[in-house]
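Render GAF domain-containing protein in 3D.
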Amino acid sequence: MTTATDALASVVAATAAPGQPQALFAALDQAMGATIGHKLFTILVIHPGAKESQRYYSNMPDAYPIGGRKPINPTHWFNTVLGEGVPYIGYNYADISDVFYDHELIRSLGCESVLNVPVRWNGSSIGTINLLHERGWYGRGHVALAQHFAALAVPGVLKVIAEG
């Protein structure tokens, strides 16, 4: 079993690898899967000046492709996770269907719980790391470790934003 320390160290090592930000994001996917667990893993980047979001990384690109931007919709989820920088835990399908329009697709992938962790820099949320798994998978005990991983995502997310 992978320890949190080993997983964090693997992500730190990935920051020095060529091929950024893909190398970093793939290491986050692997490390968070080994320590926290997920079926679906995505990274969403916020382009603040354009008021748009973009899925930049996905471990299920057929169901959740990368690319394309969409306007930011200021929902309760948006205000909590991106506005206030507070992680969101959806414990079951009702929680997911309350905040995500694509809840049926999420459920079809065997996912009925979610942990959305804001990637924060300089007082603002610049993206989110999104982990989805079976019902009841995530709890408050996952948040601190997930926030450590999210902090390590900052250079990759800033690179995406800088490249436009």
